[in-house]
Amino acid sequence: MTFRTRVAASAAFVVAIAVLLACFAAYRGSRDALIGSADASLAGAYTHIYSGTPPSVDPNVAPGFGMLLYTSGKAFISYNMGTLPTDAAIKQVASGQGHALFRTILTSDGRALRELIAPIPAGTILEQITPDGHEENIGLFPSPAALVLVESFQGVEERLRSLGVDLALLAALGVLVAALFGWLAARAALIPLAQTTRDIEEIATTLDVSHRVDEGSNDELGRLRRAFNQLLEELELSQDSQRQLILDASHELRTPLTSLRANAQVLGRIDELGKEDVTQLSDDMVTQVDELTRLVGDLTELTRGEHSVEEVQDLDLDELVGECAEIAETHARTKHISIELTSAPSTVRVKRDRLTRAVGNLLDNAIKFSPEGSSVAVTCKDGAVIVDDSGPGIDDADLPYVFDRFYRSSRDRGQPGSGLGLAIVAQVVQEAGGTIEAARSETLGGARMVLRLPMPDGRTRF
After folding, report:
1. Nearest CA to 68 among 93, 98, 35?
2. How far, in whole angstroms, is CA 198 from its chain's centroid?
3. Which of 85, 265, 275, 277 is deepest in the core (most CB within 10 A)?
4. What is the model's pTM?
């Protein structure tokens, strides 16, 4: 079933229910009005009969009425009642245990009658009016009695049947009209959606993510178009980022690969080289391979971070930073650099492995640029990690770019590295919802890196 069919069916269903309810209400209202009219006639006849003192039974109270006076288990007076029997309801009212009631009954030949059964209290004296107009005393009723008035209801039943047929036809017609107009309304309402679908299909065919759909008005469909345009923008940014990553990676790979190629060509003349030259050539090739390995590892980490499936968890930041500092000390000893750690209990909500890599990169970077015999200060508190080194620091012109992929200042391009370490830190922090800043250290004179992470309650306190 298509979306248009579902919309049309839903609209038709709602309208059809409304039509059916309206027809049902009209039938019930007409039925209640007709029954109420008949009951009012019977009540009027009863009032006419039982309004005097003493009450009088007039066989000519209204043409078309039947009348029965029932007491002591027998019919006392009966006018125009035909062969209608007295049933349990009449007997119960005549015994003084029932209340007045209206009901519809059927005769033996299938005719419909409307009936009023009303109680007459004990001690009532009734009189009847003779055909010549004189009043004649019927007598005193020492026990309760029942006065039964009957009126033909056949015409009302026939009118109700006719009305029911007419309303059923009207309801069927209303359902058909509702289905037609529901389909037309769905068709008109879905024209903008069809245009949007064609635009999306065109983009899917051409793969032109720079194209944007017309957002139109500020309704649900406009919201969908804006969301799709936002998706296209993110996809375009992702493609641009991928292209730039490939270009930057190609540029970074070109230098070590060129060196490896040159050294490999030199190996072809190894017989012409001395022992020291061969040793130097071997060391250079190992260094170049190590540089390629680091570059590939950093690229892998960047890619893994964009699609990381590691679960976010609450962890003690001070313990994690302490573990990273212990690992970094093994590298710092080779340069006689001391790592001074100051920490306080702090809990953050992050991915553990990713944060471990980020903190490790900050410490490795600080050790790398600090001179021999100097120190690195690490402070951990309130969801923040602050790393100060004793190196030359970061020039003001380089501060906006230090977290870009493959960025290295002109002063640092001779140093080993891929230029991806701080980019990985920035990616981890952004993924965790934190921030990373670079500045000059006021204590050690080198660079200062300030990494801030959200606390488990979603707040930050720095």
Report:
1. 93
2. 27
3. 277
4. 0.47
